[in-house]
Amino acid sequence: MKIKFLQAFNGDSIWISFFENDIPRNILIDGGVGNTYKNSSNVKGDLHKVIEKLRKDEQFIDLLILTHFDDDHIGGILRWLNKDKEASSLIKKVWFNSGKEIAKKFESDENKDLDIEIVNGADDFHTSPRQGIKFEKYLRDNNLWQGEIIEQGSEHDLFGLKFKSLSPNNEKLDQLLKLYEKQKDYFTSGEEYDFQTSLKDFIDEENQSDFKFKEDTSVANGSSIAFIMEYEDKSFLFLADAHPSVIIEGLNTFGYNKDNPLNVELMKISHHGSMYNTNKKLLEIVKTDNYLISSNATKHGLPNKRTIARIINNNPNAFIYFNYDLKDTIFSEQDWKDYSDFRSKMQNEF
Predict the structure, then answer these.
(1) How far is residue 197's CA from residue 279's CA, in Å, rounded to a whole number?
(2) How does pLDDT run across 209-239, given as a tens digit for each residue?
(3) Of 274, 272, 250, nearest to 13 (Cα)?
(4) How many angstroms separate the CA atoms of 201 and 223, rounded?
(5) 116-153, pLDDT tens digit by residue?
(6) Alpha carbon separation from 17 to 48, 270, 337 (Å, rounded)
(7) DSSP readout, 52-77?
(8) H or E segment and range at residue 321
């Protein structure tokens, strides 16, 4: 099995390739921002290159997982579908929690802000003034999706793999339906970076008895599809932008806790390393030395160095991987002196 974390700018896009009884299989988790596919100057991004390779090799995206509605996860996929009329022929199956199906689940009114359209030739689904085909209809018309909701506690066996869903739960799906609003200022900058603070200062602060963790409140992030993927005797953890309390609840559902931790080969840290999406309790339940953060450090102050300090405080032997070259940007010489056992590098293929 090969897992590649595409350079998706400030977003997520993960390509998993493997063989099932000599049959090549491919799973794509999200598509990053629109430029992960192609930018306005026609420069091809990592997602475009993956799609070209699959076509050349006569392979397919056997499972496309769209974890949630944020542009930094779904933007590249929408741009591809808008630009490529043959895109549907490359996809076999889609996991996607649509607003229409969530409304059916709760027997409630639909939230029109959750509507997505495929608009021929458009660059971005949230700015196009033209009307197109509803995304759900596009998926159904091409026999890619049956409207199944992927939610906490569900299990799926596909291609010799087992998937255990940790997020979202009913509460987060209900909040998405009732509270989600399309982001009108998505591309504006968010919080400032915290790279100037030392790892030691963060760790000392968080070891104080009065330290209180603050959790992400984003409705879209809370609806993220997060899951354990089991392949042969190995497990991998993909957390999208999910909320830690929901992830922990999901892990507990499958019998994992501090006394019976989940051992994984790799943990994709939630929400590009945000300090609001990874806490001590979660890190104590998941045992691994390999932590991957997907971010190019150009938006919203992410990744947070505070999150990395939490990881190192929990596991001094942690190996922090980035899919962009951020090691020298984030860590100081003093950090390496204070914590000599942790390691970090740019690596996007495992």
Answers:
(1) 18
(2) 999 999 999 999 999 999 999 999 999 999 9
(3) 272
(4) 33
(5) 999 998 887 666 667 789 999 999 999 999 999 999 99
(6) 16, 22, 38
(7) HHHHHTT--BSEEEE--S-HHHHHHH
(8) strand 319-322
